[in-house]
Design a protein that fits this description.
The complex is a heterodimer of chains A (about 120) and B (about 625).
Chain A (H helix, E strand, L loop, with lengths): L2 E5 L3 H13 L3 E5 L2 H11 L3 E4 L8 H11 L5 E5 L15 E4 L5 H10 L4
Chain B lengths: L6 H13 L4 H16 L3 E5 L9 H8 L3 E3 L21 E8 L4 E9 L7 H47 L5 H13 L8 E7 L5 E8 L4 H14 L3 H11 L5 H7 L2 E3 L6 H8 L3 E3 L5 H7 L6 H5 L17 E7 L4 E8 L9 H78 L7 H25 L6 E4 L1 H11 L2 H4 L2 E8 L6 E4 H19 L2 E13 L2 E9 L28 H11 L3 E7 L3 E9 L7
Classes of the chains: A alpha/beta (about 120), B alpha+beta (about 625).
Amino acid sequence: MKRILVVDDEESIRLLYKEELEEEGFVVEVARDGLEALEQLPLFKPDLITLDIKMPGLNGIETLKRIRETERQLPIVMCSAYGEYKQDLTTWASDAYVVKCADLTELKTTIRRLLGLL
Amino acid sequence: MSDHPNGYDLLKTTIELSVSSFPIETKLEKIFQCITNGFQSDRSLLLRPEMILKEGFLSRVIEEKKPLWVDEERPFKEDTILPEERDLVCPAFGCIPLSDENSIQGIIYIGFSKGRTFSSNETELLLLLAKEIGVTIRNDQLHRGADDDERRVRQLSTLWELNKALLTTVNFERIVHMTLTAITIGNGLGFNRAMLFLVDEKGHVVKGTMAVGPNSAEEAGTIWPALSQRSRNLSELVTQIESSTENHSVLNSIVKEIQIPLEDGQCIISKTVLEGRPFNIRFPLGEEEWVQTRCERGCHLSSEVGCYVGEHLSRDPKVYAFATVPLWGKGKVIGVILVDNLFNQDTITDEDIRYLTMFASQAGLAIENTLLYRNLEEIHQELKEAQTFLVHREKMAALGELSTSIAHEIRNPLVSIGGFARRLDRALPADASEKRYTRTIVKEVERVENILSNVLTYTKEEAICLKMLDLREVIEESLSMISEGLRNGGIQLMKSFSDQIPPVKGDYYQLKQAFFNLVSNAYESMRGEGKLSIRIHPYKKNGVSWVGVEVEDTGGGIDPEALHHIFNPFYTTKDNRLGLGLPIIHKIVTSHQGQIEVNNHPGTGATFILTFPAQEVREK
């Protein structure tokens, strides 16, 4: 069972992602912002992280940097309403970038690809 | 001397004739007949001033202002008789000078072939008669002057009326039509037909601008009287004609096609411009005169105006008179007015030409003013467009900022709404009636998401990431983005991609977006039924390689009225869609140095043709 950590400041998004991904057979944990994500990291030991960018406190880009300080191999999917950061150097360290969309197909495909499940 | 002339009768008749309505020549003829008869003389007549030669005895009579009587008692003593005067010298004659302070009217002469003596009664009677004749002649001169004045006043008031009409508008077409109407209208200048030619801006050609005139003599007979009856005032009449009759005459369309190079040549039109003077081409009397007016150019004018004979003589060119006057603007000839009397064959007099020239000088200024005004209007229009464009740019910039922030705020809730609606949809049993609701939510959220990405693409100057792209792949990707709702219908997709497609340098995401918009528009236009053909092929134009992408649908085409607006942002024929689809395509294509064209077949479908410059492929 692969474990996924969903980091998003919006409760409804966290709920949606959790339910959808659990339905796909993943074990899902959620974090409200970057700091919470960093706390969860050693406890939950996820196989993949979905990371929102615009969050209060520690934003996605800062969080990405902090995670990469220790976790070089952990797959991280940036997940944002903004498309602008897609080709941006600020997210180069992530493994994928998905623009938020009600249709989660793209997200799910990306996750499976990164986890080698395709 | 048997019977003396009846002085009373003679005077009475003379006075009666003097006040009669006969022309002056007839009056004088009858008066002198009476005098000749009354005096039983051989002849009596008026020697006009031009017949009185210097240094002759007649001139002395005028100088002395005294009558000369020659009879048996008073012999002729003059020694200076000019040969021309010899005929007047006879046994008895009288010469009475007619003159006043200002002018000489002549000499009254009465001659007898037999000797006689003038009685004092007779000389007095003749003096009285002479006085009366003098009055008659003077009256006639005054009368004639008054007639001339009256005619001039009438002409001037007509001109004034016409000019008044010209002042009612600055519209070019109207002014020109009114000018020509004024020239042809019966109580205006009264020519049968009038044509206007204007020198083009660069001054190289004279162009036919408008012609007014009936197509036939019958038509000429019906139009003007009918119009003249409708209104009293000439300026009203001219304005009325302009607004009531469309100028679709055959002559007008012929004249509009005429273009005459402005160079020294035989053409009467260019001659009028270059020499700046009127030409009155009268009826040719013989072959010789034809040669003067004939032109070998054979333009359309030659078939209308008799400025051409030569080899087409058999075609019977209309032989008639016409005249041209230059149209003066400020300090230069801006055109030519050509008039003729094709139908009533009236001679064009020099007076007509003078009159027309006077009118043309006014009309010329009016026409020049409208031309200037028209230029001004054009420039004004351009300025207005530029301003609109600027305002639009600013609006778009403001919209960009606003919409980017709003779009992002909206995206998150949309993800939840759409995402949960999908979950609900999946949770419902396949036959649940509520599935309709969940599907609607899913579909509508998808639409809003599309609008959002369109707004973001249009307003944001996205950093373009240029790569070598294979357009076939980009289009396949766009096609895969088309939602299933649109794809699963009775729409047949025909793909025809060439094997060898050179790469195109471009931004993958932008091009994907452009093709996605294009293809989904095509799908939507067909409403579930039809044929969508997508073709990609390389081609060369002017030695440059291009890749062409054609998207052809059978969705009924674009409303021709809307065709000019389809690339304008926010213009849409589908009222529930934000009209950014095509403007975005346009923006993306042009930012890739590409071109977009539409082949529209209203009622059938439309083909969008996108072309992109191809990149050189290095041979391995």
